[in-house]
Structure formats: C-alpha cells, structure tokens
C-alpha cells in the first residue's frame, strides 16, 4: 500500500492565500490600521512611499473573513492548475501585474474610494484558466462563454447596483486575464 504524502503544490497560490490570511489577522490585531496603511489602495500623495506598496499590497487585504473566504476559495480552486500549466514565475508575474493595474485604475479613476481584496486577481485567474485549452490559433468556446458571462455580469452589476463591490476591478482583472492568456499562449508556441 502506498503511503499518502501531502505535497506542497502551487507555492505561489498557497503563499498568496497564507499572506492574505496573515494580513487579515493583522487587521484584527491593529483595529484595521495595518490594512488601511498598507493593504488598501486609495488616492494619496505620490511622494509617500507607501502609495507604491499599496499599488501591490491591496490584493492581500480583505474587509473581513467572508470577503477573504470568497476570494481564497476561488483562488485555491483555479490557481493551482494555472501554476502547474504556466509555472510559478509566470503566475507570480500575472498576479503582480494585475495588482498594479487594478491599483492604478483605482488610484486614477476613483479618487474618493478605497479598494482592497483579491477579486481582480481571482477574475484574472478565472479568465486565464479558460485559455488552458487554447490550441493552434483556435479560441475555446468555454473562454468566450466565461468572458461573456463574468465580464458581462460585472458590467450589468456596475450599471445597476450600488454596493461595496468594485465591478471595475473584476472587469480590469478579467481583461488582464485575456491579455495574459494570449501572451502566454503565444510565448508557449515559440
């Protein structure tokens, strides 16, 4: 009988989930000060070095346990397959670029609000995951459906609902997933 061994698969995804949990715990210990200071992006002075930290760090911050769990369940479901297919380095780069792009969009276009959470990264991964079956110039129907359903829903929600969910972040994350999907597919062909 084979011995079952727990494998440390998907180190980038697991580290992201663990860091997000630590940030959530730190948020509780500091009464929200740490999240506001480091893990939430909002309009601030470009002379403040923490502004640049927040451009990336906001994806690790969450408003509470439920927000954290919703993002991490999807991240842990979709992320490991992406990390196996594209490699840890490529997945880390897609996360960092998505964090920066969503942070900059928030900073530039929504000066009166703050943004935190991994949903932009999660949407990027969902869309990128639909590219995993892309072969020889063909576009998978599943990818088109994912983009239409997820991004279409976010556009409708953004126009019709006023909640604390940033549909713009989901849309930008999904668009990043499209760009990465085509870029990584093209790089793999070479």
TrEMBL record:
<keyword id="KW-1133">Transmembrane helix</keyword>
<keyword id="KW-0472">Membrane</keyword>
<feature type="domain" description="Peptidase S54 rhomboid">
    <location>
        <begin position="52"/>
        <end position="185"/>
    </location>
</feature>
<dbReference type="GO" id="GO:0004252">
    <property type="term" value="F:serine-type endopeptidase activity"/>
</dbReference>
<protein>
    <recommendedName>
        <fullName>Peptidase S54 rhomboid domain-containing protein</fullName>
    </recommendedName>
</protein>
<dbReference type="InterPro" id="IPR022764">
    <property type="entry name" value="Peptidase_S54_rhomboid_dom"/>
</dbReference>
<feature type="transmembrane region" description="Helical">
    <location>
        <begin position="115"/>
        <end position="131"/>
    </location>
</feature>
<feature type="transmembrane region" description="Helical">
    <location>
        <begin position="168"/>
        <end position="185"/>
    </location>
</feature>
<feature type="transmembrane region" description="Helical">
    <location>
        <begin position="138"/>
        <end position="156"/>
    </location>
</feature>
<dbReference type="Pfam" id="PF01694">
    <property type="entry name" value="Rhomboid"/>
</dbReference>
<dbReference type="GO" id="GO:0016020">
    <property type="term" value="C:membrane"/>
</dbReference>
<feature type="transmembrane region" description="Helical">
    <location>
        <begin position="59"/>
        <end position="79"/>
    </location>
</feature>
<feature type="transmembrane region" description="Helical">
    <location>
        <begin position="91"/>
        <end position="109"/>
    </location>
</feature>
<dbReference type="InterPro" id="IPR035952">
    <property type="entry name" value="Rhomboid-like_sf"/>
</dbReference>
<keyword id="KW-0812">Transmembrane</keyword>
